[in-house]
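Appendix C reproduces, verbatim, an entry submitted by the partner laboratory led by Prof. M.T., so that reviewers can inspect both the input and the predicted structure.
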Amino acid sequence: MKKKIFFFLTIFFFLLTNISYTNDIYPYIQPEIASEKINESHLRYGAYKKFVVVTANDYATKIGYKILKKGGTVVDAAIAIQLTLGLVEPQSSGLGGGLFMTYYNKKTGEKLVYEGRERAPSNMKSDVFLDDNGMPKDFFKAAIGGASVGVPSTLKTLHEIHNHYGKLQWEEIIKPVIELSEDGFFPPKRLVNALKKEKFLFDLYPNSIFKQIIENPEQKFKNHEYTQTLIKISKNFLDFYNKDIATKIVQEVRESKNPGSLSLKDLRDYKPQKTKALCFYLRNNFELCGPNLPSSGTICIIQALIIFEDIFSEKLKTEKNFKPDLNEILDILDFIYSIRDQYLADQEFEEINVKDLLDRRYLIKSYKSFKKNKTELKVENFDEIFSSTSHFSLVDNYQNVLSVTSSIESSFGSRLFTNGFFLNNQLTDFSFSSLDNSKELIKNRPEAKKRPLSSMSPIIIFDKKKDFFLTVGSPGGKAIIAYVFKALISVLFLNLDIFEAIENPNYIKIKGKTFIENVEQNKTLINKGMVRELTSGLAIIANKKNGFLAVADPRRDGSVRGN
């Protein structure tokens, strides 16, 4: 209650505050464990009149703030933020991975998505993740090494959106990140924790520079290779895709343990995509916009909200302090995850009728049938469900909005390290098998040049007047969908403030298996779940009459800054 009261004080008096938060640890299934202690300088929420930025790490938030303060757009700030996150949070995202960006241009009213999802190499085989007996490999046997590496796409996508909506010069944007890299940084708790529990990185690189962080976590850390990469790409970003950086990437993938087939041509040929956002009006007239396939996030979240609206429609109208049944919400999640696995994939390779999948009557009928026949299945890879990733959101002086989720997939990705950054293991987001139990082709099966299905969900919401209402997103692998769904029903239907929407306990149900954060939650469940940390990194910016309210998830190291 005290936190809630204090949060409302921030609305009226525009105060900033600090929060300490301590989490327990489940290292056996959590690719990135929660921070042991949140640095007191991290601002968790605030209210601002002109612009605001929320990122997963305060080094990145500060640099994004500086870019916005000097008149840069959300796009300019996003470039600096992502390059900074690649330095200080290398286990989560970076130049070796990919991203989805949902962008709202206030002047034109455009709602766009820039998609930088990694593609499979042109020579990748469909059985790449099967063992000699034709059975799916264990997750880490598939993920560690070159076979799991998709074409790194972050940099090309950032450069593409900068060409269209950037204001500051490319080199000017990257300069403060170079300066930070040259000066060094104090390792964040999340990075230290992730390195302490890491099993594979030091087997591949016994003399890795990251051993310095484990040995001296309180000292500044410098990644000299990353500094040189930043200097090169600040002068010509194509050096990453055409010259020595590209050559080293390909060499690392092809000569590694579990070698892959990535080629220089794959890097040169990669093209990010600019599309209209996938938008949908809910019954309460809020419009939700986010990425198209191969991100499943927008579709799955819309589906979950459609069912939620239908199931609880009468109670939402008649009960003032309505609290939905958690059992029902978990069943909704279980259902939409089953739809995801069965029907969603890269639309360039599979015929997918999104309109039908968002049809209300079809969804309700299918959901009721699902509930009658549901069973608990084996959840094979916890790491696939709760994988790494980073999320950040921004509003600039011009009232443009950008929501970005970026990733190298698992913590430290493939563990392959070159040019100062880690290479992704995004290809393990494909189904390892090509056939299901009925010997039917699985839509999200591995294929050359195909993009694996993602759960990244950088969402922007618009109100009844078509004005920007809020933006939300989170890291967390497949659990991203559950985290964002929880936040949206809290704000859009239950009238909770955005602090409560983030702080309230997380939950997820997938393949009949339930994971929840809170022991009290478990007491309300018909079928008990596994109580464990669900370390979301939710970030919400809400548009209010007096400016913008922003909150960073206390479960991670995120921060909020603005003006």
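The chain has one domain: 2-277+379-562. Additional entries are available on request from the coordinating office.
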